[in-house]
Amino acid sequence: MAAASVPLRLAGHGLGNRLAFERDPLGFLLHQRQYGDLVRIDDELYMVNTPALVEQVLKNTNSTFSITRDLLGEEIDGSRASEDLAQWMRARHVAGRGVNRSGLRAAGDRMAAVVARHAEAWRDTGTIDAITALEDLSARLIAEFCLGPDPGRVPALVARLQDARLPGALPWPGWAPSLRGRRLHRVERELAADVSRLIEERGTRPEGPASVVVDQLIDACGQGVLTHQGAVGVVVSTLFAAHETTAAALAWLLLLLDRHPQVRRQVVDEVDRELGGRLPTAGDLPRLAITGAVVKETLRLYPPLWYLERTVAEPAELGGHRLHPGQRVGLSPFALHRDARLYDQPATFHPARWTDRPAHTRLPGYAYLPFGAGPRMCLGAHFGTVAMTTTTATLTAGYQVTRAADCTPTFDTRTILQPRGLTLDITDRAPMSRTYR
Ligand code: HEM
What we know:
Elements: H1 14-23, H2 25-32, E1 38-40, E2 45-48, H3 51-59, E3 65-66, H4 83-98, H5 101-125, E4 127-129, H6 130-147, H7 154-165, H8 176-204, H9 212-222, H10 228-259, H11 261-275, H12 289-301, E5 308-312, E6 316-318, E7 321-323, E8 328-331, H13 333-336, H14 359-362, H15 381-398, E9 399-403, E10 410-412, E11 418-420, E12 423-428
Parallel strand pairs: 2-8
Antiparallel strand pairs: 1-2, 3-5, 4-12, 5-8, 6-7, 9-12, 10-11
Helix pairs in contact: 1-2, 4-9, 4-10, 5-6, 5-15, 6-7, 6-10, 7-8, 7-10, 8-10, 10-12, 10-15, 11-12, 11-15, 12-15
Bound molecules: protoporphyrin IX containing FE (HEM).
Residues 67, 92, 99, 142, 237-238, 241-242, 245-246, 249, 303-305, 308, 370-372, 376, 378-380, 383-384 line the site of protoporphyrin IX containing FE (HEM).
């Protein structure tokens, strides 16, 4: 491992760094890298900037380093001995068995039909707000996947939970955050109640179509591995973690295809050649190599989770520097993915880097992290990739998706990384190309 640099304060004192981080988070993350592999932002926060140090932090999460906020931003006890952590790890293990490749194969075959239905409605409207429409789609995809073909109000409640969490564009008055917190908890309770009812209904009527995820959870509850509340919790967290990230990634992907018509042409040719006008199934995806590379490259340039953080739980040494419990360590997939030491022309959208001379054959481990890594790696990495590839193939096969002339999207980093203000025009590609209708 390269020796870590002396930790540095960029702007002379810690507060300056914090303000710079808040003002322009992405610019700050790219800027701080030049100060070394391990950079001190202030007494509390350090950044790691190399795959080797990132590996040390992510691999040792749940022991030396911990996650101290849940997916909704609430504080939790993530220490090694915590019962909450043990319960979460059991629940994620069981849910993970349902999110595996065989569980996904059946769901993947149904997925394109859901995308096609949404796309027709978008085409009828003509113009869509990308984030709202894609969140609606991904909430539906993940709700069906977790809970079966009839997830009731769950997709709509997931969208409401998201709204309740997002800070407004204007600063909040002092009393407002507690109002927002109350609203967030109300929607969370409603969502948990609906999920709980759907799991119970499935438990009493085990015949008929359902989802592998919910059946795995019910089995685990029956064996005493998991409580009913634990099963509900993992579904709520999964719904929430899945829909916003997948929607943001798809929005970036559609924006990139609009900006790079020659790549779009390659995707259209591949989809026409491999699918011949029908909807994609899970079995088609391995042959959609260019589409898959576009998905990978989008997640490299615009990883929705652009910044990850851990709290030091036990005395640690990182890059030759001692860290103490309570201090925090940050790492940025966004900055790592744009590091010229790891990627040629890192700021260029170049999907062929994943197919022509596969970048991953030369990349060190922990250099490509859209889904994180280690024991807390994303539970839905495979589902997210399948959902993005299926959606891209279905949309490009049938429709022309272009950025509306009057919109200028900007970087939104308030929660995950999204193209704020992206509006898309959806029209039929060519009547003959849509034989699946
Ligand atoms: C393109 C889409 C997605 C991206 C970029 C993404 C990214 C991530 C990342 C980076 C983490 C790790 C956070 C950390 O280390 O602190 C994570 C966690 C998680 N993701 Fe995803 N995700 C996506 C889609 C999904 C989907 C589809 C699901 C569910 C099927 C899902 C479920 C989860 C869960 C449950 C966690 C928490 C894991 C834990 O803390 O143990 N994600 N995601």
